[in-house]
Each structure stands twice: as structure tokens, then as C-alpha cells.
């Protein structure tokens, strides 16, 4: 009795079925490119967050430089918090 051939593509998601005609080397290359793009997006996100933090710090420093009363108030609050923390 001859066994029926199993269709392996039937259970695969569409994104794999579309590329099934490509040679395996091209599939690997596409996968590598997708991985690199994902890493680039993650790196861009961290650089953006870092840039925002640095920008905020610079803006706070400029405001503290331009408004001495505010600077004294901030430093006195920090000193008070430090004293409270030690108690």
C-alpha cells in the first residue's frame, strides 16, 4: 500500500508560503536583513531616549543658571531631602 504524500506547506503561515519559491540563500539573507533592521530600530529608540534625557538636563541647567532664586530653592530642597534621608 502506497502512503499519501503530506503537503508540508499547508500548515505554514502566509509569510513563509510567499517566499517558498526563493532559494534558501536568499531566504537567509532576507532574515538577516530583517534582524539587522530590528536591531537598528532598538538602537534608534535608545539613542532617542538618551538624547531626550540629555536635552532635558541641559534645559534644566540653563534654567537654573538664568534664575538664581530658583537654583537656591532647588538646592535647599535637595539639602533638606538629604538631611531627612539620613535621619
Protein model, in words:
This protein is mainly α. The protein has one domain. Helix content is 77%, strand content 0%. The chain has three helices and no strands. Helix 2 (24-66) crosses helix 3 (68-86). The longest helix has 43 residues, at 24-66. It is elongated and about 90 Å long. The termini are far apart. The model has no long low-confidence stretch (mean pLDDT 77).
Which features characterize this protein?
87 residues, mainly alpha, elongated, membrane
How many helix segments? 3
Query: Rg from C-alpha positions?
Result: 29 Å
Q: How many separate structural domains? A: 1
Number of strand elements: 0
Contiguous runs where pLDDT drops below 50 for at least 5 residues = none
C-alpha end-to-end distance: 87 Å
Average pLDDT level: 77
Query: Structural class per helix/strand content?
Result: mainly alpha
Principal-axis shape: elongated
Keywords: Membrane, Transmembrane, Transmembrane helix
Transmembrane segments: 49-67
Amino acid at each position: 500500500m502506497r502512503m499519501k504524500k503530506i503537503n508540508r506547506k499547508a500548515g505554514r503561515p502566509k509569510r513563509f508560503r510567499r517566499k517558498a519559491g526563493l532559494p534558501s540563500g536568499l531566504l537567509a539573507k532576507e532574515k538577516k536583513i530583517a534582524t539587522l533592521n530590528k536591531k537598528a530600530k532598538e538602537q534608534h529608540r535608545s539613542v532617542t531616549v538618551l538624547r531626550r534625557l540629555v536635552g532635558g538636563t541641559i534645559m534644566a541647567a540653563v534654567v537654573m543658571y538664568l534664575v538664581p532664586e530658583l537654583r537656591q530653592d532647588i538646592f535647599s530642597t535637595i539639602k533638606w531631602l538629604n538631611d531627612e534621608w539620613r535621619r
